[in-house]
Write a structure and sequence with these properties.
The structure is a single chain. It is built from seven helices and no strands. The protein is mainly alpha-helical.
């Protein structure tokens, strides 16, 4: 697979990661479709292993999402800017504290947004709890699964 095709697969994965944060966009399926496309175009054992792993992770994330409360983020006051803060926090956390840092990074992004908006620690923490109960945990589960898949794909491309 050529460099341009790998770049295109990477861009689709990034679009899927961003799509997780946008309501109505099937972000996780875009990530999976990009990995499928890569595995079909570059049929090596590592590519198939990443595809199988991606499928298992996405299925597990769907089970977790069904067990969590439904998404009602709009009713909790979540704004598009909050989604940007949460996504940026998860992205930074994923790389600063490898893999597991996405979880506190996501919540730190929401907290930072609410702290800047509301100005007080107590109110920001209350808003963070409200957002996480209203479906933020569901978004976090899906985003974390997609970040795991993207990391596995990137690792397979670079070192595989």
């Amino acid at each position: 697979m050529g460099a341009w095709e790998l770049l295109l697969v990477g861009l689709v994965i990034v679009a899927g990661l961003c799509g997780v944060l946008v309501p109505g966009v099937p972000g996780s399926w875009l990530v999976w479709a990009a990995v499928l496309w890569w595995a079909l175009k570059d049929p090596q054992p590592v590519a198939w292993a990443v595809l199988v792993g991606a499928t298992v992770v996405l299925l597990l994330s769907q089970v977790v999402r069904w067990a969590l409360p439904p998404r009602r983020l709009g009713a909790s006051g979540a704004t598009p800017r909050m989604r940007v803060y949460a996504g940026a926090g998860a992205f930074l956390g994923f790389f600063l504290i490898p893999v597991v840092g996405a979880l506190p990074g996501f919540m730190a992004g929401i907290y930072l947004h609410e702290r800047l908006r509301l100005g007080r620690h107590g109110e920001a923490m209350a808003a963070l709890r409200t957002v996480m109960r209203a479906g933020g945990s569901s978004v976090l589960a899906e985003l974390f699964a997609c970040q795991l898949i993207a990391g596995a794909w990137l690792g397979a491309v670079v070192w595989g």
